[in-house]
Amino acid sequence: MCPSGTTTLRSEIHTVGSDLRPAFNVLDADHDGKISGDDLRKFYAGFSSGGADEEVIKTMMSVADLNKDGFVEYHEFERVLGTQKRASSSSGGVMEDVFRIMDKDGDGKLSHDDLKSYMEWAGFSAGDEDIKAMIRLGGGEEKDGVSYNGLLKILAIDFLV
Question: In what residue span(s) does the EF-hand domain sit (predicted)?
């Protein structure tokens, strides 16, 4: 990233052990290093037959786009989710929405099929053994899948629980 005078902010957040890059990359659909409203629409459209709720998209962008340039850069994403993580014992908000979208059958667990479907949609190459390893990493069992907290472990953002 280019210097933007936010090194103090980044340093403060990194001291709490934050590593939200995997979650950021999930939402940055076009992989341009910033999250736009279009990225969020594409993300939601990939998992919801009804598409994205424009009010939800606008609210998410409004909350996270701290410099109001129309994009959420990584340091903004990290600050919003890092603050949210410190304020409660779960990351909540955006990541809960991500989980609900990935959980196609709504059973509160991400099954092998849920994870495989998401990985394919996101353009990541993941075989069955990779998906099984993700489930194990998240503390789940192959037949049951992983919980929300398991997804956080997979994404390496479960830094305070």
Answer: 15-50, 52-87, 90-125
Helix (H) or strand (E) holding 21: helix 21-27
Q: Which CATH number is 93-159 given?
A: 1.10.238.10
Element housing 94 (H / E): helix 93-102
Q: Give 23-91 as a DSSP string.
A: HHHHH-TT-SSEE-HHHHHHHHHTT-TT---HHHHHHHHHHH-TT-SSSEEHHHHHHHHHHHHHHSSS-
CB-based contact 91:157 (threshold 8 Å) = yes
Q: What is the pLDDT of residues 80-132, one digit of tens each?
A: 776 555 444 444 567 787 888 888 888 999 999 998 888 777 667 778 888 88
Decide: pTM greater than 0.90.
no
Superfamily of domain 20-85: EF-hand (1.10.238.10)
Helix (H) or strand (E) holding 147: none
Q: How far from the centroid of its chain's Cα atoms is residue 84's Cα?
A: 13
Convert the pLDDT of each residue in 38-89 to its tens digit.
988 887 776 555 666 787 788 788 888 889 999 999 998 888 776 555 444 4
